[in-house]
Write a sequence for this structure.
């Protein structure tokens, strides 16, 4: 079984955290008015349709939005198995102000609890964005369940990130119940804020920053998780939303080739899978990919021997729960 764990805000839904108007709209708009990050619905539908796939959504949106978010996913035709939302009202009543915005103390215990009872044959792929600290939280999660981080190290990282003591205790209590294994295959980070991919380099090649979900779909084609047709459908959604042009999507293929995330065969594979409606997109991707000569250098390791998470907290937002 492959478990696909998704964030919602800035990953699946276009959410404005930076203004009171945006926050009010997010809290009050009905399901049919909520806007998707272009390509996200097609990608998640394709992943959810896999045999043996499990879709788990872990979002920082408040629990009061459960009904409207469930309806939004239903309208989008997305099947999901679990939907976890944050009890921000409860945090407010208890004076836990850091927890309202924080992610380490919220997401990490939930992610770890989600591995209880699962064997190492259950693989993981995680999807987030660069608006928060998803890449760091997901990487810590991956290294903890792989046995590369001890309980004492996990405790120090969570404390440095501003997590409350009970959240740290909850995370630590799950560790003896988790089967140790290197089960996280990829961590996809949608570059909502436009951070350069190099910003994530110290986390290794396991973390895949993408400018669009079309790029993520192509990496998944390369990994044998999606068909080329499914990737083209994601690209079609971006075109229909006028989020990107055919030329821009072809540029995204070139970017993946430069970063060695796909092979040159991706172009012909897209062309072979394209129907008449998507022929121009597939042909443009194939032509643009063929322009590149041999790529020099060595691809980064998927999992570096050591990641200094305490140091990286300073770059990704130290005390991000503050």
């Amino acid at each position: 079984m492959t478990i696909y764990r998704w964030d919602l805000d800035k990953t699946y839904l276009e959410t404005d955290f930076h203004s009171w108007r945006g926050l009010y709209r997010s809290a009050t708009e009905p399901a049919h008015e909520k806007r998707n990050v272009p390509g996200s619905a097609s990608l998640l539908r394709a992943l959810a349709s896999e045999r043996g796939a499990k879709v788990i959504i872990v979002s920082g949106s408040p629990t009061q939005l459960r009904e409207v978010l469930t309806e939004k996913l239903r309208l989008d035709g997305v099947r999901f198995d679990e939907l976890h939302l944050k009890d921000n009202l409860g945090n407010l009543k208890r004076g836990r102000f850091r927890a309202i915005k924080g992610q380490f103390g919220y997401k990490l215990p939930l992610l770890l609890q989600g591995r209880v009872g699962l064997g190492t044959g259950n693989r993981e792929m995680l999807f987030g964005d660069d608006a928060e600290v998803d890449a760091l939280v997901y990487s810590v999660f991956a290294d903890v369940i792989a046995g590369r981080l001890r309980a004492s190290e996990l405790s120090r990282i969570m404390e440095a990130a501003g997590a409350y003591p009970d959240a740290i205790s909850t995370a630590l209590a799950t560790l003896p119940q988790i089967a140790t294994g290197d089960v996280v295959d990829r961590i996809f980070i949608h570059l909502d804020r436009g951070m350069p991919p190099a910003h994530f380099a110290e986390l290794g090649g396991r973390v895949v920053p993408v400018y669009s979900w079309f790029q993520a779909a192509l990496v998944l084609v390369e990994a044998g998780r999606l068909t080329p047709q499914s990737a083209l459908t994601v690209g079609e959604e971006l075109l229909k939303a006028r989020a990107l042009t055919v030329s821009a999507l072809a540029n995204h293929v070139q970017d993946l080739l430069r970063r060695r995330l796909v092979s040159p065969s991706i172009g012909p594979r897209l062309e072979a899978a394209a129907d008449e409606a998507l022929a121009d997109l597939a042909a443009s991707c194939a032509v643009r990919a063929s322009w590149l000569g041999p790529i020099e250098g060595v691809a980064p390791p998927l999992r570096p021997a050591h990641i200094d998470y305490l140091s990286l907290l300073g770059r990704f937002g130290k005390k991000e729960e503050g």
In short: The longest strand covers residues 53-62. The chain is about 45% helix and 10% strand. The first helix runs from residue 20 to 28. Residues 318-322 have pLDDT under 50 and may be disordered.
